[in-house]
Design brief:
Elements (H helix, E strand, L loop, with lengths): L5 E8 L4 H10 L3 H9 L1 E6 L7 H9 L3 H4 L5 E3 L6 E3 L9 H7 L4 E4 L12 E5 L11 E3 L3 H9 L29 H27 L3 E8 L1 H13 L8 H7 L2 H19 L5 E6 L2 E4 L7 H14 L5 H10 L4 H21 L17 E3 L7 E5 L15 H13 L2 E2 L4 E2 L1 E6 H4 L11 E5 L7 E4 L3 E4 L8 E4 L1 E7 L6 E2 L4 E2 L3 H8 L54 H24 L5 H33 L8 E7 L3 H12 L6 E8 L5 H11 L3 E6 L5 H11 L4 E4 L5 E2 L3 H11 L5 E8 L2 H4 L9 E3 L5 H6 L8 E3 L14 H9 L6 E10 L16 H17 L1
Parallel strand pairs: 1-8, 1-9, 2-21, 2-22, 5-6, 5-8, 23-24, 23-26, 24-25, 28-31
Antiparallel strand pairs: 2-20, 3-4, 6-7, 9-20, 10-19, 11-12, 12-16, 13-14, 13-17, 15-16, 17-18, 26-30, 27-31, 28-29, 28-30
Helix pairs in contact: 1-2, 7-8, 7-10, 8-10, 17-18
């Protein structure tokens, strides 16, 4: 392509945390990324569930699931057996650059982790030169390229370091003589890291300048190493943080991210407007707070619990007996309280670390299966699969369920909070194949604080030290930025699975990857290539074995369901209702009353569908229209003793596509460490502001306290047990900008269970609630939830005499003089399974209800 050295450029910032990078971009330290955030298509990405560290890059490069490529980590236990072995680098399935080379294209691939060097390639490849992981040693295609690289640029100052292990990360060993680095060793590592960026930049740019590449695929892993080794210096709340070292080094993440951003800018200066560019922050970093090293000791204690039939230790036995008849959710909360008592008890009696001898795997029911990630993985010793199986195959699901419950009961003794956030069944996430190396359970830890000491009635106290030197570790969320001819800029709400990167990159060059599991994203492919439409299901290539397997695509728990799924659901429901009505009309035994009832139900569905259609239309418009970040949005959130739910609410605000906001979290006398949690979040994200009322003053006072301290041009409300749609703040700012005379508006919400919302004993699917504004009906009963309301600054405050119906009263006050604007956009996701929900069935004899209604009528008469 004349004027450009490459048709498609893929530039990866390996393990560069998207949240940190966004903050640095806003501060001006990553100007290239900042410009792309404004000018490119911006897409959230997700790595493989449970295997988003080592397995992520093989998934990205090959477009296949971990079920297919079977590379979960470098050290794996052989499927069906008990022996541990080193594996990698990966040569099969072939990566995207080899597939494109075979199609006659010219390709370059530099330092892509865990991938083997090609035996034949129309282009160049360099592996393990400056990457974070090494399986053997640096290599290249053609073979003499490595010698030329080292002679021209020198070896990578960190990546070249050799160790006696078969697989290792050089940054764990360079400049470290003891268990942890000294200040001088940290300083030396940072200097070498920056020199590594400089050499990688020169090498990559020179390769790019050779030109005429169809695909240029380059990875900078210095961000990966920096996250592991220097998170303690970046995060002031980390237990290893040393202010003196921070003063000496500055923030190492900021320094290295700035250097890599400059390298990205230099690459973008080389290419032309005709080049398709993908910039990928493939997965992120956070504090290394997980309990992966606790899994085997905990499992061994659970084995002992099964053998003995009771807990060990008097406190654990009492708790186990007392909790036996409790529902599981209540049982877990009760054990959290017992964990607080255990912490006080432990402070008086020093506890030694776990030192029990754990039998070999072939003599145990379950063990920790390696997966090289912050998630734990557990394999059952299954009869018929493992050579010495102890768990009957038809008992597998029951045993896995029992394990899941016991793991969820683990309490982090230091915080009295659950140590485990979630437990997933691998069969629900991946296709299983004979001989695979998966664990049968995936354990997601609560990673808000370090985990070294856990307790439950079944395990007793298990205390294991973290003996590693890394202060940061991964999470699975990433970010892709795409530019190219016809690629529409703007934020996307639907995440791109890293599985889909390879087919999308290939599609940008007009090539359809067959025999892969991923799918190309059409909105990220240049316009001239748009006729390309990948098949949803592809046959295997002739002679390939085994048959490709696909990940079961399910919505992550707590995630928003895209609007097109809602429309599809309602259309299908409408079609079914129409069919049933027609059958009834022509049936000889169909009663007129039944037919009329079905017609009425069909009419209701039509109205519902019309509402969904309007939400879809407005949402589609909002996603592509430019919304300047000119207004500050204040998010008001009262909370009390709901720290775990509050974390979900805060995360939903941090995921907003409109980023100029402040979140005012008012802790109404909590005793579960809520304020400390908010202060920790505030230290990382200064847009979050925490306040405390002590003693408890009620949610009305808490909201008023937030309103009294708010600085925003727009005010929205988010209860601690709900979450926002990612585009809600963007929608409110757009509406208030486009309609300057509007003072109050409201949007739609998704309620998780219609039957449970109506207090029925049955269960049903989620539904969208968006009622038209009716002033008279609103006076009879609230038709608008607090979480979907937005307004300009107002003197109106919540009535602090009210403990029920205060949100209804507040909206009635706001709309005394003018009707609100119904904005067909998703605002919030409403969960009905939370405790302490107030009833929504108003009764005329209810004193509070009559107080609110009569007060409103009197006020309106006075205004008239």
């Amino acid at each position: 392509m004349p004027g450009s050295p490459a048709k498609t450029l893929y530039f990866a910032l390996d393990s560069c945390d998207l949240h940190v990078a966004r903050r640095f971009a806003a501060d001006g330290d990553m100007p290239t990324l900042g410009r792309l955030l404004d000018e490119a298509a911006v897409v959230p990405t997700e790595g493989p569930v449970g295997y988003f560290v080592a397995g992520d890059w093989v998934t990205i490069a090959t477009g296949t699931t971990p079920s297919r490529h079977q590379f979960l980590c470098a050290g794996q236990i052989v499927g069906g057996g008990y022996d541990w072995r080193w594996v990698g680098p990966v040569a099969d399935p072939p990566p995207v650059w080899e597939r494109l080379s075979g199609a006659g294209m010219r390709v370059a691939a530099l330092d892509v982790p865990h991938m083997a060097v090609a035996k034949e390639l129309n282009g160049v490849q360099l592996v393990e030169w400056g990457g974070h992981d090494r399986h053997a040693s640096a290599a290249s295609y053609p073979r003499d390229l490595l010698d030329d690289v080292n002679a021209t640029y020198g070896v990578h100052p960190v990546g070249h370091v050799l160790h006696d292990r078969d697989h290792y990360s050089p940054c764990d060993y360079v400049h470290r003589a003891g268990a942890h680095r000294t200040h001088d060793e940290d300083a030396a590592l940072l200097v070498d890291m920056l020199e590594g960026v400089r050499r990688k930049r020169s090498l990559s740019l020179d390769m790019l300048d050779r030109g005429d590449w169809d695909l240029f695929f380059t990875v900078f892993s210095e961000t990966h190493c920096t996250g592991h080794q220097f998170w303690k210096d970046h995060d002031a709340t980390h237990p290893w943080h040393d202010p003196a070292l921070r003063a000496r080094l500055g923030d190492p993440l900021r320094v290295v991210y700035r250097a890599v951003d400059a390298a990205l800018g230099a690459h973008l200066e080389r290419v032309s407007a005709d080049t398709t560019v993908y910039v990928h922050l493939n997965h992120g970093m956070q504090a290394h707070y997980d309990g992966a090293f606790l899994v085997d000791p905990v499992l061994w204690r659970l084995e002992q619990y099964l053998e003995a039939g009771r807990a060990s230790g008097w406190m654990s036995r009492v708790a186990d007996v007392a909790g036996a008849s409790m529902p599981s959710a209540v049982r877990r909360r009760a054990f959290g309280s017992a964990g607080a008592l255990r912490r006080r008890y432990s402070s008086m009696i020093p506890l030694g670390y776990f030192d029990e001898d754990i039998p070999p795997r072939n003599r145990r029911r379950f063990w920790a299966q390696p997966n090289d990630t912050a998630s734990g993985s557990i394999r059952l010793n299954l009869e018929g699969r493992e050579a010495h199986g102890l768990v009957k195959a038809d008992h597998m699901r029951a045993v896995a369920g029992w394990l899941s419950e016991r793991l969820r009961e683990l309490v982090n003794v230091e915080t009295s909070r659950p140590a485990v956030a979630d437990v997933l069944f691998t069969d629900d996430c991946y296709e299983r194949v004979p001989g695979d190396v998966f664990g049968d359970l995936i354990v997601e830890w609560d990673r808000d604080a370090p985990i070294e000491t856990v307790w439950s009635p079944a395990t007793g106290v298990v205390r294991v030290p973290y003996e590693g030197n890394r202060s940061g570790d991964h999470h699975r969320d990433g970010l892709l930025l795409a530019t190219g001819p016809g690629i529409t800029p703007g934020r996307r709400t639907e995440a791109l699975w890293n599985l889909d990167v390879a087919p999308t990159v290939a599609a940008s060059l007009g090539h359809d990857l067959t025999d892969v599991d991923g799918l190309a994203r059409a909105d990220l492919v240049p316009a001239p290539k748009r006729p390309f439409t990948p098949a949803v299901s592809r046959p295997a290539l002739a002679g390939t074995a085994p048959k490709p397997t696909r990940t079961r695509r399910r919505w992550p728990r707590g995630a928003a369901i895209p609007l097109d799924r809602w429309v599809e659901s309602y259309v299908n429901g409408l079609t079914t209702a129409h069919h049933h009505t027609a059958v009834a009309a022509h049936g000889a035994l169909a009663a007129t009353s039944e037919l009329r009832a079905r017609i009425d139900a069909l009419s209701t569905r039509v109205v519902d569908l019309d509402q969904i259609a309007s939400i879809t239309q407005v949402t589609a418009w909002l996603r592509q229209v430019e919304v300047p970040e000119s207004l500050l949005v204040s998010v008001v959130t009262p909370t009390r003793n709901r720290r775990d739910r509050l974390a979900r609410a805060i995360e939903s605000v941090q995921r907003q596509t409109y980023e100029r906001w402040e979140m005012l979290v008012v802790d109404d006398g909590s005793d579960d460490g809520t304020l400390e949690f908010v202060e920790k979040e505030s230290a990382v994200d200064e847009r979050i502001r925490g306040f405390r009322l002590d003693p408890r003053r009620g949610s009305s006072r808490a909201r008023n306290h937030a309103l009294d301290n708010a600085h925003g041009d727009v005010v929205v409300y988010l209860d601690d047990d709900n979450s926002f749609d990612a585009d809600w703040l963007r929608a409110t700012v757009w509406a208030f900008t486009e309609y300057p005379d509007v003072d109050v508006l409201y949007g739609a919400r998704v309620v998780d269970d219609d039957d449970r919302h109506r207090r029925l004993p049955t269960r049903s699917l989620p539904f969208v609630q968006f009622l038209p504004w009716d002033r008279d009906e609103q006076l009879r009963a609230s038709r608008v939830d607090q979480n979907v309301i937005a307004h300009r600054p107002s003197p109106v405050r919540f009535d602090e005499q009210l403990h029920d119906f205060m949100d209804w009263d507040h909206l009635l006050q706001l709309t005394d003089a003018v009707d609100p604007l119904p904005l067909p956009a998703l605002a919030a996701y409403y969960y009905t399974d939370e405790p302490d929900r107030m009833t929504t069935r108003f009764r005329d004899e209810d004193v509070v209800y009559r107080y609110v209604r009569d007060k409103t009528i009197a006020r309106r008469r006075g205004n008239a």
